[in-house]
Design a protein that fits this description.
InterPro entries: DUF3261. The chain is mainly beta. 14% of the residues lie in helices and 44% in strands.
Length: 205
């Protein structure tokens, strides 16, 4: 993997910083559109929990990268560790509503990690909590689901403003054969306004 390419892709989108950056207890609003400012929700708004290694595939224009990212997300925190192809940590993020700590050696110093957290919240936070927050800033969230074969199903989230689609989230679930619980297998996030997308897929042990 060429990390110069990785930096180019996420300068305007998701991840991290050319010099080490650290932000604590001071969150900036996220401009979902040029006029709509979103304030981060607390981790307690998270639906379910995640703690596993994910394979990330991302696109920005014609650029494409792949990397491993370890994610811990529950009602207490959001933690992400981005790893190089050699297994070394190249970026990390920790958010627990009181602190937002962000460190990296790759991406622009002025990049705001709030944008990473916001994208994650749009994907996974509770629909009933997200909707009113988004409506306050002139955005609409529509959530639908479709059953598949063998107990699988897909959830789709569409974020729009005045009938113009801003972003789309596609989450795929499968039934755990032992517990019968629905398990999240992959998340695909497409931001049509900013022109980027990424997909996270759980890595089987």
């Amino acid at each position: 993997m060429k990390f110069k390419l990785l930096a180019a892709i996420f300068v305007f989108t998701l991840f991290f910083s050319c010099t080490t950056t650290k932000i604590e207890s001071k969150f900036s609003p996220v401009f979902v559109t040029n006029s709509s400012k979103y304030e981060l929700l607390p981790p307690t708004a998270m639906s379910g929990s995640i703690e596993e290694l994910q394979r990330m595939e991302a696109f920005f224009g014609k650029n494409h990268i792949e990397a491993d990212i370890y994610v811990i997300a529950n009602e207490d925190q959001l933690s992400m560790i981005l790893m190089s192809e050699f297994g070394t940590t190249v970026a990390s993020l920790f958010y627990d509503d009181e602190n937002l700590d962000f460190e990296s050696t790759l991406f622009p110093k002025k990049f705001k990690p709030e944008y990473i957290v916001a994208d994650f919240q749009f994907c996974l936070y509770d629909e009933e909590i997200l909707k009113p927050r988004l409506e306050e800033i002139g955005l609409e969230l529509k959530v639908s689901s479709e059953a598949g074969k063998d107990g699988t199903f897909t959830e789709t989230r569409i974020l729009s403003q005045k009938y113009k689609i801003i972003s789309k989230v596609t989450k795929k679930f499968e039934k755990n054969s032992e517990t019968g619980a629905d398990e999240l297998k992959s998340i695909k996030y497409e931001n049509f306004l900013r022109g980027y997308s990424y997909e996270l897929t759980g890595v089987s042990e």
